[in-house]
Amino acid sequence: MSTIQIFDPALCCSSGVCGTDVDQNLVNFSADADWARQNGARLERFNLAQQPMAFADNAPVKAFLERAGQEALPLTLVDGQVVLAGRYPSRADLARWAGLAVPAAAKAESAGNCCSGGNCG
After folding, report:
1. What is the mean pLDDT of the chain?
2. Burial, 101: exposed, middle or buried (Cβ in 10 Å; 0-12, 13-18, 19+)?
């Protein structure tokens, strides 16, 4: 099974789901990461504010930061290779990289079918 590593920007806590103004993208990703781990995925997260050496000691991450800057985070690596930058992976992404069955809801989300009947508002 592949190892998925997420390199987060500087967050107030390990998950980023803290404080009074929580980013919904972090809430969604935190739930997706928990789902992936519960289904056997090897997923690690690194927070720039709390684990700066993880960024400095990883050659692809260090090179990415030198080129794009920390504003381009989050960065996702699978088995040491950059696969995604600038946004958090979806549940479908995590499932594909980890070799897990993709949940039906995640398949629909990836296809752009966010809800039945086209009533997405």
Report:
1. 85
2. exposed
Contact assessment for residue 43 and residue 4, using Cβ atoms and an 8 Å cutoff = yes
pTM of the full structure: 0.79
Q: Are 89 and 76 a contacting pair, CB within 8 Å?
A: yes
Phi, psi at residue 76, to the nearest 5°?
-115, 130
DSSP-assigned states of every residue in 6-54:
EEE-S-SSSSS--SSS--HHHHHHHHHHHHHHHTT-EEEEEETTT-HHH
The identity of residue 96, as a single letter, is R
CB 17 within 8 A of CB 29: no
C-alpha 101/C-alpha 39 separation (Å) is: 9
What are 66-119's pLDDT values in tens digits?
A: 999 999 999 999 999 999 999 999 999 999 999 998 767 655 555 554 444 444
Residue showing tokens 């997260």: 45
